[in-house]
Amino acid sequence: MVESAPMRSYRLVLLQFGAATILMIMGLPTILLAEEPIPIQQILEEPRIYHLRQVTLQGTARDVQPLDPYKLPNDTACYGAYLFKLEDDTGVMSVAVLGICGRPLIRDPEIEDGQRVEVSATIQAPSHGGYYLSFQGLKVVTEQEGFVQAVATRILPLLE
User: What does DSSP assign to residue 2?
Assistant: First the structure.
């Protein structure tokens, strides 16, 4: 069967449109998952709403402090952890990077003091009955402490 030129053009346009549609749909989840950064003050004002929620924060890293290796309650040693403060226009929040557990690997923090970063983190709110990372290793949170900490799951430099 011989196709006419207009029919071939029509098929080519349909094929290109179909390919473009598939590529757009494949990229759509990335767009839908991209979360707007939450102002730090918003989390500090209502910490229980954000407890154990994954959030995106943006700001400037301050007071980056590497930690000595620490042990989990099951006696597994963790290495390469560090703490820093994340500062945005609305406030400051403590951020913990838990490091690598079970493998003795000493590494420097991935960020530097003064660097602008985007942090994906899980918020640990007061009285959650869990742990927070401190310079003395893992500490149990007590009701009266009122400690809010972001536990980083991903840190990306912001290019501005």
Answer: P
